[in-house]
Amino acid sequence: MSAGPAPGPGGPPLLIACALGIERFALRGGDADGAAGPVTVLRTGMGPQAAERAVARALGEAPAAPAAPTAVVATGFCAGLAPGMHPGDLVVADETRDPAGRTVCAGTAFLADALSDLVPREPRRGPRRTVHIGPVAGSNHVVRGAERAALHTTGAIAVDMESAATLRSAVRQGARPVAAVRVVVDAPEHELVRIGTLRGGISAFRVLRTVLPAFFDWHRNAMLPGGELDGHASPTDHPGRDVSF
User: Fold this and answer.
1) DSSP code for 105
2) Residue 92 parent element (H or E)
3) pLDDT tens column, 136-195
């Protein structure tokens, strides 16, 4: 299900895909100023199959022969895999991976730097937020406990059910810049079954409301002539780097 495009000048389009209504609500409540072109926030539904179908359909319905291909960002909440992560931390994927393969993301370091300038510190002397950079794993179910630890041994720093399928579906429709940005809603020391769940969810929601300007900066630099990410190359940038703010 797609929300209407946000206001923006005539330029290359940006598709922002999320799975849940609460995620779309957070994104629609963000600041839409500064978009380089039309922006669509797409609610795909939960799970990899729903994400893959929704993104393929959305890109297939795009205008024929656009001036530039639609860039795609997968976003929403995730489970952190690395010890020391906190709810509200951000994860920027340098690649997404699942049993079907891997998709390399564009402009990872640029996007992480843009996000580090935006996200507020938790009030009342809360923890400093961190932007974690590294691989994001895809799963078809909620990952907990021992399975979470096993995924972390593969090098993945976070897991969700839609990012890998979203980006794989996007690049199957043609070369384009893709990225995945997720907000940690639970982590090894802060699993959803624990008493701090509600507080962690509020923290993650608050952070997700702030990310749109960073997505727009990334989009401009990925798509517009002269931008730092001009073209469709998708190099891996500084895997594993964390940026505290």
Assistant:
1) P
2) strand 90-98
3) 999 998 887 788 889 999 999 999 999 999 999 999 999 999 999 999 998 776 565 443
Q: Which class for 236: exposed (0-12), middle (13-18), buried (19 or more C-beta within 10 A)?
A: middle
Beta carbons within 8 Å of 105's beta carbon, 6+ residues apart: 92, 93, 94, 95, 96, 167, 178, 179, 180, 234, 236
Angle between helices 212-223 and 108-116 (to 10 degrees): 150
Say what the pTM is.
0.83
Give 193-212 pLDDT, tens digit per residue.
Answer: 443 445 557 888 889 999 99
Extract the tokens encoding 165: 């399928």
CB 59 within 8 A of CB 172: no
Residue 142 sits at the vertex; the CA angle it makes with 147 and 70, to the nearest 5 degrees, is 115
Give burial (CB, 10 Å; 0-12/13-18/19+) of 225.
Answer: exposed
Q: Quote the pLDDT of residue 28.
A: 83
